[in-house]
Structure formats: structure tokens, C-alpha cells
């Protein structure tokens, strides 16, 4: 699958490497332009290419959005129309400034902003270092580190769940985008190392 990644911070880099190692065609972008990513993409290897944000969004059949939440207005919305978009962002008011979410979850707010994108919330409750090191495809699903996932689009959620399994984690269905409030910062699952069964308990899914 062609996967575009918007944002080359720690989470973006980790997902680029893991997904490229799993056999996907990955394009990485940042806000400063592809020429600033050449050293990074060479270091990551696996054929990962550097793009502008618009070109990464255009390139990806699926796009991962991993820019700071406060920069949501910088996302290339036109190029994301109709595509599965994994939203990894968390809203930190002290970093992002005051943003009126209108009572929505962070990802429901993002989905409203992006309009035609098929938004899936995932990878927001795990540290980049753990994403880099804790995936293990040799383990049974129920023994792997859990990744909560939420979306209003069941088909998109299934596609992202398969990607999570491919890089050695266990997807845990956390319902729709509004339900993703239970995986945001400050919730019991946030940053917690948990198997799928424990994650369901922490998310209140039992």
C-alpha cells in the first residue's frame, strides 16, 4: 500500500520505518519541504521518500497525520478528500493554544475540519519509543501491546487494524470518533502498556 505521512517527528519517523519494513511504499513530509528530509530518509532506509505535505497526501492511498494538533489548519485538506487518514494528534492546550473543540473529541473535530477524509484515530496513546520497540509479530494478538483505534468508518477501521497487526501490535476497537475521548491524554489507557484484554478494561469496553 502507498502510505503518505504528514509530519516527520518521532511518531512519524517510527511509523515510516515500521510500515516500510512491513513492505509498504512510504512517503514522508514535514512543514519545511522535502529537501530538509533527505538525510532522514536515507537514515531510515527501506526506500522511504521525501515529499512536500501536498505531495505526500496525494501519493498516499492511506495518509497518516502526525503534526501538532494546533497546526491542523496547515493540513492539505483537498488532497486528503476521500482518503483514509490516521489521526495520531493529541491536543495539548499549553502547546497548541486554546482551541474550541465545540464539545467534540479531538478526532471528531479533526474529521469535521477535513470534511471528506475517512478519519481513524490511532497511535495517539503510545510513546514513540514504545512504538519503535514493543511491536512483536511473533506474539499472539492477545499478548501484544494494544493500540486503541476509533472511527466512524468501519471499513477504514479494518484497514488500519490490519496495519497495526502487521507491525506487531494488537488493535482494540474503541468505537466511533466520539468514543475516542477515552484514549485522549489524561485517560487511563493513555501511555499505558496493556494487552488487548487490559486495554478493553481500561477503555470501559467490557
Automatic annotation (TrEMBL):
Sample GO molecular function, one term: oxidoreductase activity
The keyword Oxidoreductase is assigned to this record: yes
SUPFAM superfamilies, sorted: NAD(P)-binding Rossmann-fold domains (SSF51735)
A Pfam family per the record: F420_oxidored
Stretches of the chain forming a coiled coil according to its record: none
Superkingdom per UniProt: Bacteria
Residue ranges crossing the lipid bilayer per the database entry: none
Domain Pyrroline-5-carboxylate reductase catalytic N-terminal: 2-91
Keywords assigned by UniProt, alphabetized: Oxidoreductase
Name of the protein this chain belongs to: Pyrroline-5-carboxylate reductase catalytic N-terminal domain-containing protein
Species of origin: Deinococcus humi
Lineage of the species this protein comes from: Bacteria, Thermotogati, Deinococcota, Deinococci, Deinococcales
Amino acid at each position: 500500500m502507498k502510505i503518505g505521512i504528514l509530519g516527520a517527528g518521532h511518531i512519524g519517523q517510527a511509523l515510516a520505518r515500521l510500515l516500510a519494513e512491513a513492505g509498504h511504499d512510504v512517503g514522508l513530509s514535514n512543514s519545511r519541504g522535502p529537501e530538509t528530509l533527505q538525510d532522514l530518509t536515507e537514515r531510515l532506509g527501506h526506500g522511504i521518500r521525501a515529499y512536500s505535505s501536498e505531495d505526500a497526501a496525494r501519493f498516499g492511498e492511506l495518509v497518516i497525520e502526525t503534526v501538532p494538533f494546533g497546526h491542523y489548519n496547515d493540513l492539505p485538506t483537498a488532497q486528503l478528500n476521500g482518503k483514509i487518514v490516521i489521526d495520531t494528534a493529541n491536543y495539548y492546550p499549553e502547546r497548541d493554544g486554546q482551541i474550541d473543540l465545540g464539545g467534540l473529541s479531538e478526532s471528531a473535530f479533526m474529521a469535521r475540519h477535513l470534511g471528506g477524509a475517512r478519519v481513524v484515530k490511532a497511535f495517539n496513546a503510545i510513546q514513540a519509543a514504545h512504538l519503535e520497540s514493543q511491536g512483536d509479530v511473533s506474539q499472539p494478538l492477545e499478548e501484544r501491546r494494544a493500540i486503541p483505534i476509533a472511527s466512524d468508518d468501519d471499513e477504514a477501521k479494518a484497514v488500519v487494524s490490519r496495519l497495526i497487526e502487521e507491525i506487531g501490535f494488537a488493535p482494540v476497537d474503541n468505537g466511533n470518533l466520539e468514543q475516542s475521548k477515552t484514549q485522549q491524554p489524561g485517560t487511563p489507557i493513555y501511555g499505558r502498556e496493556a494487552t488487548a484484554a487490559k486495554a478493553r478494561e481500561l477503555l470501559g469496553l467490557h
